[in-house]
Amino acid sequence: MATRMETSSGRGTATAHRGAAVRRIASAMPAWVWWLAGIAIAAGFPLLNVIGVVETAWLRVGVVSLIFALLALGLNIVMGETGLLNLGYIAFFAFGAYTTALLSSPKFEIHWPFLAVIVASTLVAMVAGFLISLPTLRLRGDYLAIVTLAFGEIVRLTIINLVPLTNGPNGITGIYPPRLFADAKPALEGIEAWFIIDKPLEYYYLVLVCVVVLAVLLTNLKNSRIGRAWNALREDELAAISSGITAVRAKMLSVVLSAGIAGFAGSLFAYYSNVISPESFLFMQSVIVVCMVVLGGMGSIPGVMLGAIALQALPQLIREAAGAARSDFEVYRMLIYGVLIVVMVIVRPEGLLPDKIFRREAHEVDPRELEMTRQSLFDLEEGEKDLEV
Amino acid sequence: MSFDHIMSVTIGGLTVGMIYALIALGYTMVYGVLKFINFAHGEVFTVGGYVAAFSLLAMGIDASTPWLKVAGAIALALVAAVTVPMVLGFLIERIAYRPLRGRSRIIPLLSAIGVSIVLQQLIIIIFGPKPVTIPTLALSSASVSFLGVNVRVLALVIIAVSAALMIGLTYLVKSTRIGKAMRATSQDMEAAEMMGIDTNRTIAFTFLVGSALAGIGGLLVVMYYGSLKYDAGFLYGLKAFTAAVLGGIGNIPGAVVGAIVLGMTETYGVSVDLGFLAWFVVAGLVLGLYVQMVRVPNRRLAHIAADRRTPEYERSIMNVYRLTPYHGIKTLLAERTDALLSVSAVDAVRLMAGNIFLAVLAAVMFINSSARIDTRWQPVIAFVVLMVILMFRPSGILGEAVTEKV
Amino acid sequence: MEPVLELQDVSMSFGGLKAVDSLSFTVRENEIVSIIGPNGSGKTTTFNLISGLYEPHSGDILLKGESVAGLRPDLVHNKGISRTFQSLRLFTNMSVLENVLVGMHSVTSAGPFASMLRLPSVRREEKAMYDKAQEILGMFPGRFSGPRQHQPAFSLSYANRRRLEIARALASDPVLLLLDEPVAGMNPAESHEVMEQIRMLREKGYTILMIEHDMHVVGGVSDRVIAMDHGVKIAEGTYDEVANDPQVVEAYLGKRAADATA
Question: How much is the ipTM here?
Answer without folding.
Answer: 0.90
